[in-house]
Amino acid sequence: MVSKNGSLVVHRRALLLASIVFVGGILTTTGSTLAAKSAQTVNVASVYQKASVVIDGVMQNFPQSAVVIGGATMVPMRSIFEKLGATIAFNTATQTVTATRGSTVIKIVIGSNIATVNGNRITLTVKAQSINNSTMVPLRFVSEAFGAQVGWNVSTLTATITSGTSGGSAVITPAEAVPSGRPSSTVSVSEKGIVVQFGKHDYGSKSQSEYKFVMDKVNAALQGYSSVRYNEGGVYEQQFKDFLAGQRWSGNTSDRSTQNKGLKIAEGALGQLVANGVSSSTIEKAYQTSIVAYTLLDNTVDPRTGKPDSAFTALNDKIADCDGISNVVIATFDANGFNTAIVSNGADAKPVVQIEGNWYVVSSGTFAKTTLLTTTSQSAPLFLYTAPTL
C-alpha cells in the first residue's frame, strides 16, 4: 500500500512483498494497521420495500404485504401459515404466536429471534416483529417450520413458496437471488437475511443487490483465472516453476542472479505450501485465485475511517479497510471452491484459506500457514472474525 492524500491505496506488488507473521499467537503485518470492527447489529429500518408472495404458483394479496428490511425478506406469518393449512392463535399477554398444523406446533414471541417447532429451538436470522399489527418473520422460517421450498427473486422482489407436507429442515431454492456464472453446492441465508451461496458469507453486504453485485464481479473475474501466470508473467516466472520442481535458492544473499533471487521470492510466496505437501496443481490454483482477488482490489483506497468494511464498497466505490479487503479475498476463494474465513487481532483483519487440510493467511500470491482459532471473543489476542465457509 502507498499513501495517497492521507489514505492507503492497495497495490498487488506492495502486498506481495508485505511480510505476514504470527508472533505469540498475534497477527501482525509490516503494513499499516487497519481497524477491525465488531459485527454490526442489523436494526429494523423505518422505511421498507414491499415485496410480492407467490404460493404454489398463485400470486397472493395479503392485508400486510411481504417487505424487505435492511436486506432481509420478512413475510406475514398468519397469512402465509394459514395458506399452508395451519391455524394461528395469538396470546396478547405474552405476545406469543402459536401455529398448529397436524402434529406440528410452532411458537414464536414477537421481538425474539428464537422460535420452537415441536419444542425444538430454531434461531431466526432476524427477530420476529410487528408491522401494521401483523407478525412478520424471515422468509426462511417458512421453510424451517413446514419444510416448504422458498425462493427469492431479487429483480422483482418476489418470494415464492412451494408448500411442503411436514416440518423439517430448510430447503431453499432461490431464483435470481444467487448470481449467475458459477455453480454453488449450498445455498443458505446469512445473519442479515441475505440469500448466499457459500456458508453464511455475505461479505459485509447490506442487501441482496449488493451481494449479487459482489458475486457477479467475482465470478466474471474468475472466468479467466487459469490464464494467470506465476510472478504475473514477470521476470521470475520461470524461477517459480523451478521452485515447484524442487530447485532452491543458494542461501547466499550476495548472489544477485535472477535465478537465485527468483527462487528466494518463490520460496517466500509458496514455500509453506510446498513444505506441507500441497500438490503443484492446487498451489497453482490458489496462487491464481489470490492474484484475481487482489487484481479486483487494485487502486482501492482506504480512507482510514474504519467504515468501508464490505466487499461491495471495495468493488463498487473502490474504498475499503482491512475488512473490505478480506471480504473480497474470501469471496473470490469461496467462488473458486475453497474454504475460507477471516481472523483478527482486534486491530487488523486477514483472510485465511484452507488448502489441502491446512489454513493459510493469504496475501497477493503469498501464503503463510496458521492455525484457525475457534474463539470469537474479541478480547482474545487473536479471534475468528468471520466463520469458515464449511
UniProtKB/TrEMBL annotation:
One Pfam family in the UniProt entry: Cu_amine_oxidN1
SUPFAM superfamilies assigned: Copper amine oxidase, domain N (SSF55383)
Domain of life: Bacteria
Lineage start: Bacteria, Bacillati, Bacillota, Bacilli, Bacillales
Native species: Paenibacillus tritici
Domain Copper amine oxidase-like N-terminal: 55-161
UniProt-recorded name of the protein: Copper amine oxidase N-terminal domain-containing protein
